[in-house]
Amino acid sequence: MTDTETLETIRYTADVVALTPGGDVLLIERGWPPHEGAWALPGGHVDVGETSRAAAARELEEETGVWVAADDLRQIGVWDSPERDPRGRYVTVAYAAAVPEDTRSAAGTDARTARWWPLAHLPERLAFDHADILRAALSQALPTATRTPGQEPTR
């Protein structure tokens, strides 16, 4: 390392855009700073030994009670702007999930509330750069969520 190089801690996260065929997106109300009380996509840190896809599925279930198989998540992009989080450098891999219309949610860890929002009536502002992530997901074709008879929408 030279005198001009600076080391930076980079944190690795995953976020999920869960959408219903009817045009609702699942958001959580953040229960902690930064952006405490703001609406955000479900997501969080990638644990040691975990892939971002597995972390996305885990965080979705932990924060909202909605279970989606990791293999059913489709990567929509990477967000790595140095200014995207006031706590420091966070790089997130965002995934999209198509879920059945009647999927129930319930706030879990780190979330005050989990709620389905109609895309036409979203909160005025989303935390971090989550509005950009949501726009990217909506610009890509998403598969339709299906359920086999007797399959529960949540786990």
Describe this structure in words.
By secondary structure, this protein is an alpha+beta fold. The chain has one domain: Nucleoside Triphosphate Pyrophosphohydrolase. The chain contains two helices and seven strands. Strands 4-1-6-5 form a four-stranded mixed sheet, with helices on both faces. The chain has a three-stranded antiparallel sheet with strand order 3-2-7, with no helix packed on it. A hairpin with an 8-residue loop joins strand 2 and strand 3. The radius of gyration is 16 Å and the shape is globular.
Question: Treating each run of at least 4 consecutive H or I residues as one helix, how many helices?
Answer: 2
CATH topology: Nucleoside Triphosphate Pyrophosphohydrolase
Structural class determined from secondary elements: alpha+beta
How does the overall form come out from the CA principal axes? globular
Oligomer: single chain
* N-to-C CA distance: 49 Å
Averaged pLDDT: 91
Strand portion: 25-35%
CATH superfamily: Nucleoside Triphosphate Pyrophosphohydrolase
Helix content: 10-25%
CATH class: Alpha Beta
Model regions low in confidence, pLDDT < 50 over at least 5 residues: 146-155
Q: What is the annotated CATH architecture? A: Alpha-Beta Complex
Q: Tell me the number of structural domains.
A: 1
Largest sheet: 4 strands, mixed
